């Protein structure tokens, strides 16, 4: 049985604004085992990036974790002090942010930034930390790392800066790497290289990866399990095979139908999901997908229970109970 690395129970994160409480994450529960790659997917505003930052206690103000518990290796980390979090963050749990240009200090050389992180968490000497930084840059495919450590972030391309961020995150040998949209704004060739790199590094070090993305194609390439989020909640969770071949939730099916099918050999019109996501300043009391769902019923105004299809596959939808009644009440 796989070793449980991270457990999230009933996580709720809100942003307290002038307009009111924006309930960005509303009761999310999931787990990540050692060595596995889990994709957290959903369109913009689904709560996936807010969830990722909450896992490392990096929710920006005016945001706040208002309920729930996060356990790492069985120990609760939800209420740790900043001092205690600094021992975990970057060391046992590391993060690759969406925009490396804002995550890297533009006025410090790459080598100095990497050495600072390595020395803080691993206690190496200056020279040993520099050698480690050079080796990590080499491992992520940056040529001439001895020269590149003396360059500034603006001297690297977008793909290279992302590689630097991955090298920095992995330099402290974390047990869990959280990658928040690591291939966004990169061209498809560089995307493929970054995904291949993550896969190789995971195999080499057995690091677990939480991959935050809106791209199901990326998930299909590198993930073993998938968590589908919408309206700040988990709609469906399962293995890659469960989600891509046995999807149950109408939202998951909508995401899959909106993907272009390259193997078909002829032009096909994409099928969009009509409507817009719910307003989380005033979230619906029932299923958050109700207003956009082609199968919506009256009882969708109440929150559905979670149905377990198999030990690896669960989803939250009234269709699990509705059967023929649900089909006969489909919207036109």
TrEMBL record:
Instruction: Please report which protein family the annotation says this sequence is part of.
Output: Belongs to the ABC transporter superfamily.
Check the record and name the PROSITE patterns matching this protein. Answer: ABC_TRANSPORTER_1, ABC_TRANSPORTER_2
NCBIfam families, alphabetized: oligo_HPY
Task: Provide the primary localization.
Answer: membrane
Name used for this protein in its record: ABC transporter ATP-binding protein
- Sorted alphabetically, which InterPro entries does this protein's record hold? AAA+_ATPase, ABC_Ni/Peptide_Import, ABC_transporter-like_ATP-bd, ABC_transporter-like_CS, Oligopep_ABC_C, P-loop_NTPase
Q: What is the lineage of its organism?
A: Bacteria, Bacillati, Bacillota, Bacilli, Bacillales
Topologically, how does it sit relative to the membrane? Peripheral membrane protein
Q: Which domain of life is it from?
A: Bacteria
As for subcellular location, the record says: Cell membrane
């Amino acid at each position: 049985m796989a070793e449980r690395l991270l457990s999230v129970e009933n996580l709720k994160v809100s942003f307290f604004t002038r307009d009111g409480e924006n309930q960005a994450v509303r009761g999310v529960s999931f787990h990540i085992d050692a060595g596995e790659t889990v994709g957290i997917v959903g369109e913009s505003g689904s709560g996936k990036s807010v969830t990722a930052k909450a896992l490392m206690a990096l929710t920006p103000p005016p945001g706040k974790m208002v309920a729930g518990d996060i356990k790492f290796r069985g120990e609760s980390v939800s209420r740790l002090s900043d001092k205690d979090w600094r021992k975990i963050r970057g060391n046992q749990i590391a993060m690759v942010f969406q925009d490396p240009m804002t995550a890297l200090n533009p006025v410090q050389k790459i080598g100095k930034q990497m050495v600072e992180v390595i020395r803080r968490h691993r206690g190496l000497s200056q020279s040993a930390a520099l050698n480690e930084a050079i080796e990590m840059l080499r491992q992520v495919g940056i040529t001439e790392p001895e020269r590149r450590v003396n360059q500034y972030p603006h001297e690297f391309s977008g793909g290279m800066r992302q590689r630097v961020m991955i090298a920095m995150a992995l330099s402290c040998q974390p047990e869990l790497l959280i990658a928040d949209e690591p291939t966004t704004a990169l061209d498809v060739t560089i995307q493929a290289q970054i995904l291949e790199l993550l896969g190789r590094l995971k195999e080499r070090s057995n690091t677990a990866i939480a991959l935050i993305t809106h791209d199901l194609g990326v998930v299909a390439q590198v993930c073993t399990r998938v968590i589908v989020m919408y309206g700040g909640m988990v709609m469906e969770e399962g293995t890659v095979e469960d989600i891509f071949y046995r999807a149950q939730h109408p939202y998951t099916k909508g995401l899959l139908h909106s993907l272009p099918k390259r193997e078909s050999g002829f032009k096909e019109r994409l099928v969009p999901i009509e409507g817009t996501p719910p307003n989380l300043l005033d979230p619906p009391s029932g299923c958050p997908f109700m207003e956009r769902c082609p199968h919506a019923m009256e009882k969708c105004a109440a929150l559905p229970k979670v149905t377990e299809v198999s030990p690896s596959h669960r989803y939250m939808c009234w269709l699990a109970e509705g059967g023929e009644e649900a089909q006969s009440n489909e919207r036109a």
